[in-house]
Amino acid sequence: MFEIYRHENNGSIIEYRTEDLTGINSRICPERLKRGIGTVDIPVYSSEGCPFCQDLIDQMTPVFPDGRRIRMGESVTFPNLFPFASYHVVTVITNEHTVTRFCQEQISNALSAQVLAIGDKPGYKSINWNYLPSSGASLPHPHMQGLVDPKPDSLPLRYLTCSRRYYHENGRSWWNDLMDYEVKTMRHLTGMNLFWYAHPVPIGEKEIRCVLPITSIQDFIPYIGNFSQDLVKILNFYNYMGNGAWNMSIFFGSDSDATVFSAFCILIARINPNPLSTSDTAFMERLHFEPVIMTLPEEMGLFWRRYCEISD
Predict the structure, then answer these.
(1) Most-buried pick from 71, 80, 213, 271 (CB within 10 A)?
(2) What is the CATH number of the domain that holds 266?
(3) Alpha-carbon distance 21 to 267, whole Å?
(4) Can you give the residue range of the structural domain that contains 235?
């Protein structure tokens, strides 16, 4: 499933990893954890003037063509005022401006609203979440974004194309082979409703993925509850690891890809926002398209098992 080349540089071990299916590369440098670029303390953000807070959301956010917004539980969904996709919606997840712990109901309602908003639109769909400014969120108030475009974005396109080739050459799904392989490793996150694991060739820090037993977004509906329950546990795990900011994307395919492609979620931890730390994204990630990771995926599995022991 992947290849490792290990190199020693001035007493530090660097692992160069390549995913066989896609050719994606990353390098893991555990010594860089010693830089101490992060902080555990997350700033308190003022809610003054926030367009996603309850007193302003109906005044400052747009509505769908029928003149309404989608409301499910605490969540409110509406078109994005500044879209960067052919169809782009925003779901405000909570009434509260600052949230340190999410519950299953909040996540489930937000995901359900996203599916309702973008599920019937033609094209390739994704549900995305930047949490806190250090993850790229323009507002700290928790919100998800749903995108639809005529063709897949670069990363899902790579997996779609390579998955089709793998199926043509081997007569079986790479995603099933991946799960059969990862379930036997320390990277597999046990005790979950769905299949979660620390991806062996991470594209982000402390990366965790979920392989869903579906392909299209409409088939996601009966799994939203289980997924939300799992996701809350993962986010609490990130909190236990000292990470309060993250990026999440769920990528869906079309019904015609059902035999070759599985919808999947990628979740990566981001550095906690504070004015004294450097970013965890630099020229290697943005210009070389090759992430530099500090935490070994195998250690993520070990940390997960420790977390489960104390949280049960």
Answers:
(1) 271
(2) 3.30.428.10
(3) 20
(4) 1-312
The CB density around residue 275, as the number of other CB atoms within 10 Å, is 6
Beta strands in the chain (DSSP E): 2-9, 12-19, 25-28, 70-72, 75-79, 87-92, 124-131, 143-149, 188-189, 195-197, 208-211, 245-251, 264-270, 292-293
**Number of domains present in the structure of the chain:** 1
- Give the pair of three-digit tokens for residue 62: 């747009």
Residue 243 token pair:
């990470």
Asked whether 6 and 189 are in contact (CB, 8 A), the reply is no
Task: Please check whether residue 301 is in contact with residue 208, taking contact to mean a CB–CB distance below 8 angstroms.
Answer: no
Could you give the C-alpha distances from 267 to 55, 242, 245, 282, in angstroms and in order?
31, 15, 11, 19
Q: Return the sign of the alpha-carbon dihedral for residues 115, 154, 231, 279.
A: negative
The answer to whether 187 and 301 are in contact (CB under 8 A) is yes
- Burial label for 306, CB within 10 Å (0-12, 13-18, 19+), is exposed
* Separation between Cα atoms, residue 31 and residue 258, nearest integer Å: 41
